[in-house]
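[job 0412] stage=complex_fold ligand=zinc ion status=START
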Amino acid sequence: MKKIILFASVIGMVGTIFLQSTEAITKPEPQKTICIDAGHQKKQNLQTEPVAPGSKVKKAKVSAGTRGVATKKYEYELNLEVALQLQKALEKKNYKVIMTRMKHDVNLSNIDRATICNNAKSALSIRIHADGSTNKNTQGLSLLYPSGTSTKSINKVSESIAKTLLTESILTTKAKKGYGDGLLPRSDLTGFNWSKTPVVLIEMGFMSNSTEDKRLSTKSYQQSIVNGLVNGIVKSVQ
Ligand SMILES: [Zn+2]
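[job 0412] stage=complex_fold status=DONE, emitting structure tokens
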């Protein structure tokens, strides 16, 4: 009798293991989607669009962006360089990545870019930018997050993600924090106000500062930005 019970329990165990393993195969972890928007494009588009749904305030569809004082690189070029590396790094971590653009010669307004990320139902949209200032000494990396009335449902979660991304990016880049504490709530950005999914914008540094401009164009520094963002995304994106 003992032998029969033992036999039956072994069969049972094998069956359980088999069920668990087939379950693991047929039910993979759902991939989280991250939408990456490399800011600006080759030609600015000064036609206007509403800054928020239903708003009478209008802003340019896509502005020119800044340019490196030392490298002479355009911001739209730098933004895509980093965006493409971020795409690769996130795909390695098994995220599904949607890119709003893969080349410079596009015509995508800020509403278009938000719409692409909304349609992708992204867990996070991350907008990649670099800063410019009339003060050549100004330096620093900062994270922007939405604070407008059209984005009430995503403001808090976006702020929380921005904080984590800032902390992790400062750890890997050793950059100064821009604008004091490196965090900026914004209610005036079209790309934020039309977003329905959590969204942040990184200003990677100031291209108007010669030292920071040159550093932003090195592969190793770009990689440190990407590493910081990936670490932050892994920690904060649910
Ligand atoms: Zn920009």
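The pocket of zinc ion is lined by residues 39-40, 65, 75, 129 (CB under 6 Å).
[job 0412] exit 0
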